[in-house]
Amino acid sequence: MRVDAVYENATVWTGTGMTSALAVLHGRVVALGDDARSLSARSRVDLAGGFVVPGFHDAHNHMAWFGMGLDDVPLGGCRSVEEVYDAVAARAATLPPGSWVVGSGYDQNKLAGGHPDSRGLDRAAPGMLVRLKHTSGHMTVVNSAVLDRLDLANVPVGGDVVLGDDGSPTGLLREQAQLLLRPLTYPTPVDRVVRGLARASEQYLAEGITSVQEAGIGGGLVGETPAELAAYQQARDRGVLRVRSTVMVAASVLHDLPDDAGFGLDLGLRTGLGDEWLRVGPMKLFADGSLVGRTCAMHDPFDGEPGNRGYFQVPEDELARTIRRAHDAGWQIATHAIGDRAITVVLDAYEAALAATPRTDHRHRIEHCAVLRPAELSRLASLGLIPSPQGRFVNELGDGMRAALGEARVPWCYRLRSVLDAGCVLPASSDRPVVNGAPLLALADMVRRRTASGAPFAPEEALTPEQALRAYTYGSAYATFAERDLGTLEPGKLADFAVLSGSPLVESALDDLASGDLASGELASGELRVQGTAVGGELRYQA
Question: Which residue ranges in the chain fall short of pLDDT 70?
Fold first, then answer.
């Protein structure tokens, strides 16, 4: 047999063991080790001693949001509200009067002075329309010129417009209240979404990511346009969608279908439609909000705020009805639930749906699954649910999460080891652009469990390097029914892999990786890094 390529002179971690070479034919692995080296090939690629792993698979990211946001004013490095205003003023000085000034990535937990407000933005950018997106995506601050254009008398259920001591809006719109901006900002032109996907794809390949799951398209808080799937198709047609993509569909765009065809999209479309490059995945819905923003639904109040237990984004009975209808129609379901109260309600809804209509391999998910009480962990496992936490959150958001929870609840937060011990499959993801999405940085955080200030954060939840790597490969593929093609390098599977400069299975390599500038995610010279990324056996990125 003559194959397309043989990759050799490497250490290859297949996900199930070690070997030294792999052969590729028609985009799939056909042989490993000595069997691969013995084959005739159109090309032989010397990997110069690199360490090969299955391509990283991000189980929860926002690809379009990230790619388009690369044009925003970057606010993640600001350490005071005055620095935010200065950054806004600098961008405004480059734009014509009346333009939008859009910034993203600020975190009030890291800012001296807390949230920016409309008055400060008015001073920084007079005559402009200003919108600043919180790093979580669950809040937005706007200036007075934008506030004046909003219908503040009709705030959607599941959100609020924050008022100051004088009773006037501060400019902070939380959760569903951000939908008030829709008449001004929605829909995003499809061509702009395509350009965002193209830019994101290039970044992902440079980080060893070969496949992703887009956590919400078509509507809701994270959708960019009702034609968002068309944007993905166009990106693929133009050759700029360079990583395999599974898209979660916002629950708000599903509806009852005629002829008792169930609950779904027009033509009866639901989970599973597509191919190895672009597929429709779960229905995505939001139960609650943000932990660092203190809007997620909690059993007990946030630390230091005795009157604040957060809130749901939809009424609890509506949440349960939507889960039941989607489950009965055959959808995989991915429900955002961060607070422990939200997780309890979502578990109740899944349990009721499964009792009424049993399904043996539903793979329903809880996105983030952040504050997971011990009693709920066993329920999660017994129902066959998949939690989808983000390892990087502990680093970039951990200090803010600790402040919101208080020390007693930190052990319940973004659990990893205990989820595996309970028998669940654990995927790995970033929620990019909420935090830096580079998988190597996340692997280090999943093993180290330290915040940006260096404080331990529930260290008993730390994974071994191999467990972390398996989560970012096989675990994430499993979470979207893709493990038959992805997640390991075995004959018959797609030849998607990353070539690293060293082994991520060595804990000291991850320690070195995490010892640099964690806020920016920049790698120091000599640190573990990606040297190449192959999709379907074709090297699409080389350092």
Answer: 514-525
Cα angle 96-72-74, degrees, rounded to a multiple of 5? 120
> Distance between alpha carbon 515 and the CA centroid of its chain, in Å?
24
Please write the tens of the pLDDT for every residue from 382-411: 999 999 999 999 999 999 999 999 999 999
Give DSSP secondary structure letters for 377-444: HHHHHHTT-EEE--TTHHHHTHHHHHHHH-GGGGGGBT--HHHHHTT--------TTSS---HHHHHH
Three-state SS letters, 65-132? HHHHHCCCEECCCCCEHHHHHHHHHHHHCCCCCCCEEEEEEECHHHCECCCCCHHHHHHHCCCCEEEE
> Can you spell out the DSSP letters for 441-492?
HHHHHHHH-B-TTS-B-SGGGPPPHHHHHHIIIIIHHHTTT-TTTSSS--TT
Question: What pLDDT does 527 receive?
Answer: 86
Look at the chain and count its residues.
543
Q: Which two tokens stand for residue 20?
A: 């030294």
Report the C-alpha gap between 343 and 500 in whole angstroms. 37
Nearest by Cα to 335 from 263, 385, 287: 287
